[in-house]
Amino acid sequence: MVQFWELAQLSDVDYQKIMRRAEQDIRDLLPLAQEVIDNVRMNGDRAIVDYARRFDSPNFEASMLRATPADFAQARAELDPAVIDAITQAHDNIRRFHEEQMPEPMWFTEVQPGIMAGEKVTPVTSVGLYVPRGKGAFPSVMLMLATPAKVAGVPRIVVVSPPAPTGKADAASLVAAEICGIDEVYVVGGMQAVAGLAYGTETLPKVDKVIGPGSSYVSAAKRILYGTIDVGLPAGPSESIILTDEHVDPRLAVLDLLVEAEHGPDSAAILVTHSRAVAEQALAILPTYIEQLPEWRQKFVTNVLNNYGGILLTESLEASIQFVNDYAPEHLEVLTAEPFITLNKIKNAGEILLGSMTPIPTANYCLGLNAILPTGGFARSFSSVSVWDFLKRSGVGYLSREGYQRLQGITATLADYEGFPAHAFAIRKRNEIIGL
């Protein structure tokens, strides 16, 4: 059973549920997140190990918290060479894209004669990258986070990623970290990992920023820790919209609808079209394609398409585009006859993939674009992860004597008006001292 909605007939309750996605799940988890954060802040490694034993690996020990050089070597030895090659090639594309994003390290402009204003760009000093794992593992996320962090020149980059039942980090993720030039990987995940990076423990370092996608649990912890640490863009449960017109091959639309739906039960995936024929054909095709997935992924997909996802029929392409802009999806795939024309009308989306030859999976892995994207509607104001997530700007100014003379009167006048006598005094007394 797949949800089928007609936009014009949706009740306010159903419409708001679609728009909220897993937001209610996150709100319900806030008390638990606070409990976990307080425990980690007070008890450090002991709390983290306890949670790891409870949720990930029953025999986990504190000595396993950091991946060792031997773990990296074993990971490379046991991984299929074809997977290593794929990770390497994907890294090359992602690195090239992000190198193009790098700004000039410093710039100035002469506002007026003797008045210089500019910026100096420097990397964040320390960053923690959250690389999730659930039923699967995500070396692609490692690449999407570690590559721009390295390109940006962050001096200390650490990774947290949940352990497998064996207590070890995922082999492919370790290899991806190594390819990116990162050797500081901590085998911890969930709310406790974010808390550990925010406050520091005996083993985990305290960092200036933590960034990376996660489950509703991780999103809840980030929400509480906002203000204690920079938690980066809101990257929660996966979501996508497949936007089509009547010209699409519905088989392709259905294939790509399944992509984000298989991430987990709190994901969202919606096929949006104004073509009833496309919607009905997609409904007919979906069960056949779902049956071809492994059973455990079938459950995820079915849950998503009956909860936060489904097929939405609108009255026109314009109405479909308006829904997309209101929803602000993480991933948007545009399968229309003229995707570049449609592109001009899209305002809110984490990424916009154009045409049937640009499917979400390729962008997720190796196109070069960053696939760590804002979720939950935050694409209205946030962008995808980039080198700018690992850089900061400092304003730089310089006044010559001539420049100071031009501005001293304006400065004192505005300081007087705003009621800051020390500001004005600093100017007028300076004028006496320097002989103006």
Written description of the protein model:
- The chain is α/β, with parallel strands linked by helices.
- It has three domains: 4-22 and 237-368, Rossmann fold; 26-233, Nitrogenase molybdenum iron protein domain (Rossmann fold), CATH 3.40.50; 400-434.
- It has 17 helices and 13 strands.
- It has helices at residues 12-20, 23-43, 45-55, 69-78, 81-101, 139-152, 171-180, 190-199, 216-225, 250-261, 276-291, 295-305, 317-327, 339-343, 360-365, 401-418, 421-434, and strands at 4-6, 106-112, 115-123, 126-130, 156-160, 185-186, 209-211, 239-244, 268-273, 310-313, 331-335, 351-354, 391-399.
- The strands form three sheets. Strands 1-10-9-8-11-12 form a six-stranded parallel β-sheet, sandwiched between helices.
- Strand 4 (126-130), helix 6 (139-152) and strand 5 (156-160) form a beta-alpha-beta unit.
- Helix 6 runs parallel beside helix 7.
- It is globular, with a radius of gyration of 25 Å.
- The termini are far apart.
- The model has no long low-confidence stretch (mean pLDDT 95).
